[in-house]
Design a protein that fits this description.
single chain
Amino acid sequence: MSSTVLSLESTTIHIAEEIKVRASIEVTFAALLDQLGPYNETQADKPMPMKLEAWPGGRWYRDLGEENGHCWGHIQAIKRPTLLEITGPMFMSYPVASNIQYRLSEVEGGTLIVFHHTALGLIQSNHREGVGKGWSHIQESVRKRAEALAPGKTATR
């Protein structure tokens, strides 16, 4: 019989990013909800629409139709337009607890998004290695969407 030694590094994820957006906090928050919801996509720019019920206890899930899908999490806290916090397994279908936080604040020239993803569990190495790229792709898509929706610009939907 072999045993596996678990370390803190092998059982956790911690990602922190700051994203500067040249759009108002209201427009940026709306773009965030859109990007995490119906306009979500993979890193390969393939549509992967999600459902985001933007209220406390609301679900964030991938709807595959015919009552099939994958629950990524639940809204832990929402304070429009400054906070969105989601807890759940996210994209990991095994024993793991995750928390993601989007904190938005007004700064000169637009909005600052401070993003954190923290997870604890039996995290597979391929997920730990790829998660940062995935979140960065989503953050960049939020920025582009918000800046395209800023006053005087045409939406890119």
